[in-house]
């Protein structure tokens, strides 16, 4: 599991770097104006609309495929996969038509404050982007199939491909002053990223068929399994809709861009660490649950959380301390001016701690899904969304955009704590002695790391350029953290070091 998670992290880092390059290109050429606001919302809408379905299918597919293959054989499992894929294509067609007919009302849901030029741009981009739901739908099944068969590289590489083509579309659009390049390039990038999925699935032994059976018992079962999952795994998308819609009201222009760019940096860590680890452990948890090996499931949970904490705690510390310098390094050029840098950095400071809640909740949710309990995470997601709306609206009156970020953070952490309590009751106890011990050590190392990095950053002020000063501070912080976790004998750090050394020796 650790080896797979590390490989996924490396691939995800490359994808996220390209993601930053995409946002840097967008910020450089279009700043925080109406076009950027419109494109970011339009880019989000199709994914969110269909992710409610595709995320539920992907998450529910793995345990369902495992059960069908073990009870009825591989051929039946492949038939189920083909049938589910074909049904999703029909659903995608329905979603696409609805999106094209009711584009403007849908945009108002995602950005309630958009009017005039911003609204027109967003509607224009969204009508192109709606065609991406076909690729999103089919990929949700193939992603689950590939992960189930131990193939993680192709699914993890999609972000790199999408971002590469999106950057090309942004540059062409700015170069020729034609927004059609941005619209067509955006939807093409969304579709092209999944082009390798069918071939990779075929290589793993899958053969697609033209079966279409809505009454299939396995389809009905996954629908019942997926409905609560759809609510549960969509919590971050719902929170993002709430934040963006409120931001479009609070700040006439640029609010959505500022929150989106701040969220992208949080998403960088989330994608590298949280998604990589949960993707790697989910098939294992499903198999252990199917074999009723609860003790082993608890051990996998503790190992996953320890590994998560080892990487999330220092990331949160670094994002909070160096928020504005990081934003300046990544986006502070072209039409993305100093005021936008400060506002985005401030939002990032308040968003960063939400990673703690995200990491806990994602692992906990996979535990429940493996136990075929999809209702509990769904109820927790609804509670989290209600908390997010309440805190975000209340805090935005006092601190504006930062209130939206802080409200999301508070809601995410509280939701994770509640879900953990339910799991502990469900499993009749969950010993956390070792986990707490390692977490305290990691917290101490993260705080000392932050102090050392900040001290160096302040000490070197005026001596070298700001960006070089930031990069050196990050390097020093990473070095201090690495030494501290080894001196404090954090077991997970030693295991990761041994894994890297073994990899080097093999080469």
Short description, anyone?
This protein has 507 residues and is mainly alpha-helical. The protein contains 22 helices and no strands. The model has no long low-confidence stretch (mean pLDDT 83).
Describe this structure in words.
There is one protein chain. This protein is mainly α. The protein folds into two domains: 2-431, no CATH class; 432-507, no CATH class. The chain contains 22 helices and no strands. The protein has helices at 2-30, 34-72, 74-101, 103-110, 116-129, 133-148, 153-156, 158-176, 179-192, 197-203, 217-233, 235-250, 255-290, 294-321, 323-331, 338-351, 354-370, 375-399, 401-426, 433-459, 466-487, 491-506. α5 packs parallel to α9. 54% of the residues are buried.
Helical amount: over 70%
Structural class of the secondary elements? mainly alpha
Give the tally of structural domains: 2
Q: Whole-Å distance between the termini?
A: 21 Å
Overall strand count: 0
The largest sheet is: none
- Morphology call: globular
Count the helices. How many?
Answer: 22
Radius of gyration, taken over Cα atoms and rounded to an integer in Å: 22 Å
Strand content: under 5%
